[in-house]
Amino acid sequence: MLRIVVAKPGLDGHDRGAKVVARALRDAGHEVIYTGLHQTPEQIVETAIQEDADLIGLSVLSGAHMTLFKRLIELLDERDSRDIVVFGGGIVPDEDLPVLEELGVAKVFTPGATTTEITDWVAAEFPDA
């Protein structure tokens, strides 16, 4: 069983997708900590460290994905916690996906991704969990 923090950073107030993903991950047998709306990258990293999380999943629909993911990765580096895998979902243009991957984001699920795709990816990345 993995411990996964699902978070909604920034000012975006639409969390239905994050809640659906959190439930799907929980139903797949993982322990999920949902942080709620309007979290800062600092709050998300602190929660992940305190909860001894294996993964952080960000849901970003606000268009601020580049800034938010970059800051989150920087904070994980500063806290010597890059062993926490970062993935995300939301409205992210295709041209930004390689840049996010370069930053260290393991996977980004764009609109239309199913919960099965997400849970299957987690299972494939962590086969022993």
How would the blueprint of this fold be written?
Blueprint: E1 3-7, H1 16-27, E2 31-34, H2 41-50, E3 55-60, H3 65-78, E4 85-90, H4 97-103, E5 107-109, H5 115-125
Parallel strand pairs: 1-2, 1-3, 3-4, 4-5
What does this structure look like?
Pfam families: B12-binding. Keywords: Cobalamin, Cobalt, Isomerase, Metal-binding. GO terms for molecular function: cobalamin binding; isomerase activity; metal ion binding. It is built from five helices and five strands. By secondary structure, the chain is of the alpha/beta class. The protein has a five-stranded parallel beta sheet, with helices on both faces.
Instruction: Provide the residue-averaged pLDDT.
Output: 96
Please identify which CATH superfamily we are dealing with: Cobalamin-binding domain
Q: Any idea what the CATH architecture is?
A: 3-Layer(aba) Sandwich
How does the major sheet shape up?
A: 5 strands, parallel
Approximate shape: globular
Radius of gyration from CA coordinates:
13 Å
Beta-strand fraction estimate: 15-25%
Please tally the β strands and state the result.
5
List keywords for this structure.
129 residues; alpha/beta; cobalt; isomerase; isomerase activity
